[in-house]
Amino acid sequence: MNAGDFEKHFAPAAAAVLESMFFSETAGPCGASHMPGDLQARVAFWGKVSGVLSVRVSEASARALAASFLGETEESLDAIQIGQVVCELANMLCGWIVSKAESKCVWELGAPELFSAHEEESEGTEQNFGIEHGTLTLVLCLGVIA
Amino acid sequence: MALNIMIVDDSPVMRVFLRKVVQLTGLPVGEFFEAGDGEAALELLKGNWIDLVLTDINMPRMNGEEFVRELEGDEVLRDIPVIVVSTDSTRERIDQMLNLGARGYIAKPFFPETLRDAVEKALGSVA
């Protein structure tokens, strides 16, 4: 099993998670976009293959997604709630992707955690998707546990 | 009859989401109870009447698997229907939790009607 076995599930995972849980959608693949203030969360997984999936979204996108997820106005949300929603987004994306890629074996997920843009990211397989107000980036690093 | 529903998940925003989705389904809800892990949920179950439990699997202290085992080992609590709500959609995990005693299993992500159907099925299986 290699990164490609996981990567092919990135786009359907993003579409399924955003549509059903965030009442939103992706505008399809797009170029990389890093902005100051982007929020990043990562989830480690252990199974036949282990690794870490990281998710990065712009602050504006994260706020919009959190508002949809919680059924609240964007103005009413604080940074903690938005961070928790980004963690839950990473959790669902990682679970969806690993469930498909490792469908025949038992695996475990770690607790999702926010991490700083200043922390060094491992090299990995990356895909970017256009979403409301910005970009959703998924980065997969196999064999690396956070 | 209004249902008292307990939501067990270590993510506060997921608990809010599940509460809102349950409300959207139109199910008659009396009171919501919330716990961040299996241990906290067991404490709440001892002192409150709960008609249905929605639980995550991956939680600190006592995870969903241990929690369902504890419920099944209790002569009173084993009658409370439990629906697992998890990101793990593998057949092996679903079968494992159903064999342990869960009455339903919902893989995240899901649409609101999936939750309503699972709740109705789980409550119907009690009657």
Write a brief structural summary.
The complex is a heterodimer of chains A (146) and B (127). By secondary structure, chain A is α+β, with helices and mostly antiparallel strands. Chain A is built from 4 helices and 6 strands, in the order ααββααββββ.
**Secondary structure: number of strands of chain A:** 6
Share in β-strands of chain B: 15-25%
Major β-sheet strand ordering of chain B = 2-1-3-4-5
What is the first-to-last residue Cα distance of chain A?
Answer: 20 Å
Give the uncertain stretches of chain B in residue-range form. Answer: none
Instruction: Kindly name the structural category of chain A.
Output: alpha+beta
CATH superfamily of chain A: CheC-like
Provide the succession of SSEs of chain B.
EHEHEHEHEH
CATH C-level class of chain A is: Alpha Beta
| CATH architecture identity of chain A | 3-Layer(aba) Sandwich
> Strand pairing plus helix content of chain B: what structural class?
alpha/beta
Salient structural properties:
heterodimer, A: 146 residues, alpha+beta, Chemotaxis protein chec, 4 helices, B: 127 residues, alpha/beta
Explained architecture:
The complex is a heterodimer of chains A (146) and B (127). Chain A is α+β, with helices and mostly antiparallel strands. Chain A has a single domain, classed as CheC-like (Chemotaxis protein chec). Chain A has four helices and six strands. In chain A, strands 1, 2, 3, 4, 5 and 6 form a six-stranded antiparallel sheet that branches. The longest helix of chain A has 23 residues, at 79-101. Chain A is globular and about 45 Å long. Chain A starts with a helix and ends with a strand. Chain B is α/β, with parallel strands linked by helices and 127 residues long. Chain B contains five helices and five strands. Chain B has helices spanning 12-25, 38-47, 64-72, 91-100, 112-124, and strands at residues 3-8, 29-35, 52-55, 82-86, 104-107. The mean pLDDT of chain B is 94. Chains A and B meet through helix 2, helix 3, helix 4 and strand 3 of A and helix 1 and helix 4 of B.
